[in-house]
Amino acid sequence: MDDFGIDRQELTGALISMEFGPGGRIQQLWASDPSAPEESEEFQFVAPPLMMGEETTEDYFPGTILLGARTHPEDPWIVSRNARAEAISEEEDGSIVSFEYEFSFLEDLGATGKFYEIPGSVPQIAWDVEITNRSRRSIEIGELGFPLALNNVLEGFASTDRGIRELWNDRVYIHKFFGGAASYLFAQRLTGRPPGLAIFPGGDTRWEFFNHVPASLATPFRWEGIPVVYVHSQAAIEREGWPEWFSGHTALVLEPGEQRTYQMRFAPADRHFADNLNSTLAACDRPALKVFPSAVAPVDVGIAVEVTGATPARFFTDIDMELETDADEEGGFCFLKPTATGAVRLGFVDTQDRETETHLLFIEPIADLIQKRAEWIVDHQICLEEGPFQCAILPADIATGLPITDPEAFIGAFGIESSLADALFLAEKNTIYPQTREIEALDDYLEYFLQDKLQNPGDGSVGCSLPDVRAVAANFGRPQVYPLVFCLYHSMWRIARTFGGTRSEANAYLRRAARTVAAMFGHSNESAIHSAGIPLMSYLPDLVRDMREVGLKVEADATAKLLDRRDLELGRRRYPFFSDGQWNTTGYEETFSVARRRGNEEMEERALRCAYAARSLSVDWWWYGSDKRWIEDSDGSNPGVFDKGELCLGPTTVANSLMFFKTLDKDYSTLHEATMRLAFGGMLGSWALVRADGAASMAFCPDAASKHFGMSGVTGDIGISLFHYLRGVGAFVLPSRSSGVSTFGCHFESETDDGTDQFVIRPWDGVGRKVVVRQFGFEVTAEIGQIVEVRVDSRKRHASVTMKNNSDTDLMASFRVKGLWGNQFLVAGHELLSDNGELKAAVLLPPLATVRTEIVVKR
Which residues are bridge partners to 396 per DSSP? Predict the structure, then answer.
């Protein structure tokens, strides 16, 4: 490699500065907050030097060029990188830094690079790469890739509150979108604080593909690896034998003497609350996309795509469908509502002849997927054979449709936690759509597997592994397994008190839940239980409330005491997000709930900000709203994971989406649109993992370089995501000053009846438990039964609630209404009074029937 010596090349722009090293690669890249450049500290984005087998991160610093070419279609591709570069002096003031690159084995290709600032409302650093065919024959360029080793290694700090705080302040996530001209890579600090760094193609350059450097996926580091963005990728696909990616792959033929220039740009951006990333791209004359309600949506709902930064001249899809489109000088709009489910590639060509595309997914109606998923669990994931797993709900291989009974899968926590996750989903599903055989399967699971092999009847402790499947569980100190159990008992209580048909009486399940909570605090590892939020613990206050309501005072008081102690422990920490491997996204859910319960607004804001920094607004169905995730080396028992390839749409995605919806319990002065879209995307994204027949995958990996590219072949812990959805989802109508009204989980329309405006809300969320019309101050919550439709007039003097009984027995449905204009009501002919503005009503629903209840304000 070359050596620039002491006097390294430097480029200093208004908001970004760069220091260059061997090969013309960027050794350090500093950026300032674009909204307050004089007041903020600069942040350094390039990765530290790290060994990756025979390679180092320095081999992939920004400024590296991967070039693959051949002179004949039958020849192998020759691949090289800029190992050496000679600096070219152009400007004495250092406003331009240029290099002539040298590529071993590709002497016929010449390449130069020029770094310079583009001034404007958003100052950018541009990097122009010019490639020239210096030979007398045609050369086919099949690979032109740009590695971007950024500071995303999530380790190296002490396992203390201070160490975790330093980790969160010093490292970045990398969010990616590859859609032609609208492509970008966004480095977001873990705290969500500015500055962030947007890297994107400029001019007529487009990106078509990405992968992570294969060597970076096989390291012990906690990271997702080093991304490589490609302008041309045909050689990479053929050389590595990778499956084709979604957007296809290209090559370019350069004739003798011909040259081609490619451009990459670097700009600071902020994405906290306001979507400054999109506005930054638009200000830089790049297309930017937004979708509503999500990149994944039921086929009967449709998806709207909004374009800024470009004027679409023509929209197109890869399947035949009618599109509703509009465009002007400000941008464009397209609404898709296909007739069949499946993935759709939507693209457009803008007035500058640039092509952009994105990938959307249309799924079955969610109510159908909920019930199909439950049926698939009972049909495929219950072990019917005599032996150690008889009656157990097990993780399954979705290709064969068979439960996984390999003892290796139960040595670690994977097997048991996956089992409990699907049992938890199945129980919660039966609080909405009860089925006799599913309830019987759950009781069998509790009696013959959970209570026989996993949970000690003497002290309530729960093991997280089965090192010997013929014996009972071991390793009782893992706190994450206990909430799975007490939430399962809680859901069983909800079934028993509503529909019945369970083997035990309702309160027996609550007593078991209380005992499980006590065992958790008695047996869990102290450092693990006190250092961070734990998944599903946010539901513990609901358990305490229900125990009090049914008269289990002793159990409720004991559990509440433990809950208070838990709140105090977490409240002492500024960053209670520590995990087994220092970093993951599991700690936010409970931390946020504790902060709201305790009135700690600073912690509430921090948890929400940090949680949403870990998810993407990339308009591709596998990334949109998805939390970052990969499996730690310590969890080697997972049969569906083979390296550090990123796993999209994991179990925290829905849990952390619910944090945003919990902030909507009151009116707001500002609706943070980017946060809203991240929450919408996360709520719906996990349903992309559920097939139309009910089989489900634990995650999706979009990285072709990973050995588990595509849908994971095992069910894993998908049940946690689906449980969160069933327990927390609602239908929301949310006004904003910029976009009118945004809706989630419902169809919303306004009608006129006898001269009075009437709002109509029809939930499509598949659950029908909650309707919230924010700012109008109107809410309906179903405690028992399912909401099908809600109507309310604009004067709030009259409303109707249509409820459905999904069981085959009579059901006394109950619901609560807030916000009507009065305190005395006529409900289905009966006079009722409200309690502090809340009306409670009950209605008898015949089996499988739908009943509409009229509510009229008397005064």
Answer: 403
Q: Which 3-state string (H, E, C) describes 373-434?
A: HHHHHHHHCECCCCCCCCCCECCEECCCCEECCCHHHHCCCHHHHHHHHHHHHHHHHCCCCC
Round to whole Å and give the CA distance between 772 and 730: 8
Q: What is the pLDDT of residues 262-278, one digit of tens each?
A: 999 999 998 765 678 89
Residues 197-251 pLDDT 10s: 999 999 999 999 999 999 999 998 889 999 999 999 999 999 999 999 998 999 9
Q: How many CB atoms lie within 10 A of CB 20?
A: 24
Q: Tell me the two tokens of residue 573.
A: 């920490």
H or E, element range at 424: helix 414-429
Question: Given the DSSP bridges, would you call strands 331-336 and 323-328 parallel, antiparallel or unpaired?
Answer: antiparallel
Q: What angle do CA 146, 110, 136 make, to 5 degrees?
A: 130
Cα of first residue to Cα of last residue in the chain, in angstroms, is 85
What is the identity of the amino acid at 352?
A: Q
CA distance 775 to 742: 12
Query: Are 780 and 801 within 8 A, CB to CB?
Result: yes
Q: What angle do CA 816, 817, 823 make, to 5 degrees?
A: 115
SS3 195: coil
Closest CA to 183 of 264, 251, 108: 264
Both tokens of 505, joined, read 């009486």
Length of the chain: 859
Give strand pairing partners of 394.
none
Q: Provide the β-strand partners of residue 382.
A: 393
Tens digit of pLDDT for each residue in 287-339? Answer: 999 999 999 999 999 999 999 999 999 999 999 999 999 999 989 999 999 99
Question: What CA–CA distance (Å, rounded) separates 268 from 193?
Answer: 12
Give pTM, 2 decimals. Answer: 0.96
Q: Round to whole Å and give the CA distance between 330 and 309.
A: 7
Q: Tell me the C-alpha distance between 120 and 44, whole Å.
A: 23
**Bridging pattern class, strands 770-773 and 756-763:** unpaired
